[in-house]
Amino acid sequence: MMWVILGFLLLLALGQAFFYSMQGGQTISYSEFKTLVREHKVEEVTVADDRVRGTLKGENGAAARPFTAVRIEDPKLVEDLEQNGVKSTGEVSSRWLGELLGWIIPLLFLVALWGFFFRRMGGAEGGVMSFARSKAKIYADDDVKVRFGDVAGVDEAEDELREIVEFLKNPKKYTSIGGRIPKGVLLVGPPGTGKTLLARAVAGEAKVPFFSLSGSEFVEMFVGVGAARVRDLFAQAVVKAPCIVFIDELDALGKARIQSPMGSHEEREQTLNQLLAEMDGFDARKGVIIMAATNRPEVLDAALLRPGRFDRQVLVDKPDVRGREEILKIHVKTVKLADGVDLKVIAARTAGFAGADLANLVNEAALLAARKDKTAVEMKDFEEAIDRLIAGLEKKRVMSDKERRIVAYHESGHAIVASVLPGLDPVHKISIVQRGFGALGYTMQLPLEDKYLLTREDLVSQLCVLLGGRTAEEIAFGRVSTGAQNDLQRATDIARAMVTEFGMSEELGLVNYAGQQRPTFIDPGFLPQRGNYAEETALKIDNEVKRFITEAHDAARRVLEQYRDTLDRLSERLLEKEVIESEELKAIMGPLPPKDSDAIPVEIPPVAPPAGSNSSQ
C-alpha cells in the first residue's frame, strides 16, 4: 500500500511539472521582457490576466524560443507592443486546471487516504477500531471434520451430548410438544480429557456452524469492550442459527463476583453481566446452543449455573482402562505398529492418563522408534515412552558407588513393602536410573483395576510404602539421606488428609477440618487453607498426623527387618542391572503372604468410616 501511495504522489508531481512546462518555456522578469520588446527580439506574445507568454526571435537561423513573464500593472504594454511591431493577442485566463493539479487533487487524495485507513481500523479484519467485535473463530458446517467416532473414553458424556445433536438436526421433535432444549451445556473435567474435542464433535455431527473462542478473549484493557464483544457474538450466532457457540476456559470470564476491600475487576464483571443477560434474552427455539468448558467449576458464579443458563453440566472425566484402550486405538491409526504391540497392556500401564496424555504417549513412542531408525513402533518404545512421561527424561550423569548403593536400598525398600502389605498395587518396575528433576530412582506400581474409593487400610499401606525407602536406609546404613524428601512430603499430605478431610482419626472424630475445598480437577500446587478451628485443635491435628506417620514407619521397619536378606539381594541385583521388572522381582522375593493376610499388621487403631461415606482420592 505504501508503494502505491508514493507512486501516486510522484505521478502527481510529474503532472504538475509537465503542465507548467507546457504553459511556456523560459521564465523571465517583466523588466527583461520590456527590454527585449524595445530591442525587437520578441516575435509574438499572448497577454493574459496574470502572465505574458510569447516567443523570442531566433538568432542566426535558430528556432524561436518560448518564454513566460509574470505580468504587472502596465497601461502602456499594448502601446509598446504596437510601436515595436510585436504581434499580440489577448487571452482570458482559465486557472481551473492549475488549481486542480495544485491543490484540489491532493486534497481529494488525502481525504481518500484518510477514509481508507479509517475503514481498515474499523473493519472486521482486526484493526484497532475493531476491538468491540467478537474474536470468535467461525467454522462453517463443512469445516468441522470431527465426529463422535474420533472421540473415545468418555461414553457417558457422549451419550449426554447426542441429545443436543438430535435437537440441532430435528428441533421440531422437541418443540412440537412444548419441550425446551437446554440453553447451555457446561463440560467439566480435568485438563486434557477432550472437552474441546467433544464440542467440535457435536458441531460436526449436527453439521452446523461452530463459533469457538476462549473466555480470556472477551476482556481487554478498554472499558466496555468485553460486553460489546458478547453482544456482537450473540448477534452473529442468531444470524447463523442453528449453530453452536463454544467458550473454552469459562472460568477466565465467569469467576464468582465478590466484594473485597481491594476492589474487583469491574470490566470482567460487566462482561459476565452481559453474558448472563444475553443467555436470558435469546430464544432457545432459534437453535443457538451455548457450550463451555472449564476445569475449575468451583470458582464459577452461581448465576451461570442456574437453570435457564447452563442447565446441563456434563462430566468429562479421565478414562478407565477400556476407555484408554479405545483412545489408543484412535491415535495409533496413523502409526506403524510392530506385531508385538498390545494396546491392552499399554492401557493397563497408563492409569491416570487423560486423552491428551495418551496422544502424547503415542507420539513419543513414534519419535523414539524413528530416532533408532526402526520401521515400526515396538512395545519397548511404548514402555520407554511411559517411563519418560511418568518419571522424566533419562539422565546420563554418573553417580558415585556410595550414592548408587543408597539409592538401590532406598528403592528396594519401597518395592518390598509394596509387595508385602495388603491393599497395594503390584510393583511393575524398579529403577535406579536418574530421571526428571532430581529423581535418582523410582519404583513404579501399576494398578490391576481402576479405584474410586480408598479405605483407611489402603491409605495406611501407602504411608508405609512411602516411608519404606527411608526405613531401608536406616536399616542398611544406620543413617539417613536427603533422598526421602519427596516421600516425606507426600506421606505428610496423605496423613493430614486422613485426619482433617476423611475423618479417620479416633482422637478428632468424624469432623472435617480442611477448611477451603481443594480444586476438583487441578492440582492447586499448595496446601489448602487452614480450617476454622482452635489452636488446641491444631495441636491435636499435628499430633495425630505425626502418630500416623510414626506408626507407618514402625510397620515398614517390621516388614523390612523380616525381609532383610531379600533387601540385600534385591539391592545388589539392582546395582548390577539398574532396572528390574516385575517378574524378576517376584523371583527374588519368593513366596509372599496373601494380600488379605495379617502376617504384618499395621498397628493403627481402626476407625470405621461413617455410613454412606463415599470419600475418594
Can you give a write-up of this model?
The chain is an alpha/beta fold. The chain folds into five domains: 2-93, 2-Layer Sandwich (Signal recognition particle alu RNA binding heterodimer, srp9/1); 97-130; 137-256 and 268-315, 3-Layer(aba) Sandwich (Rossmann fold), CATH 3.40.50.300; 321-391, Helicase, Ruva Protein, domain 3; 401-589, Methane Monooxygenase Hydroxylase, Chain G, domain 1 (Up-down Bundle), CATH 1.20.58.760. Helices cover 46% and strands 11% of the residues. The protein contains 20 helices and 14 strands. A six-stranded mixed sheet has the order 6-8-9-10-7-11, covered by helices on one side. Strand 8 (210-214), helix 8 and strand 9 (243-248) form a beta-alpha-beta unit. The radius of gyration is 42 Å and the shape is elongated.
Please provide a brief summary of the model.
Helices cover 46% and strands 11% of the residues. The chain is an alpha/beta fold. The protein folds into 5 domains: 92 residues, Signal recognition particle alu RNA binding heterodimer, srp9/1; 34 residues; 168 residues, P-loop containing nucleotide triphosphate hydrolases (Rossmann fold, 3-Layer(aba) Sandwich), CATH 3.40.50.300; 71 residues, Helicase, Ruva Protein, domain 3; 189 residues, Peptidase M41 (Methane Monooxygenase Hydroxylase, Chain G, domain 1, Up-down Bundle), CATH 1.20.58.760.
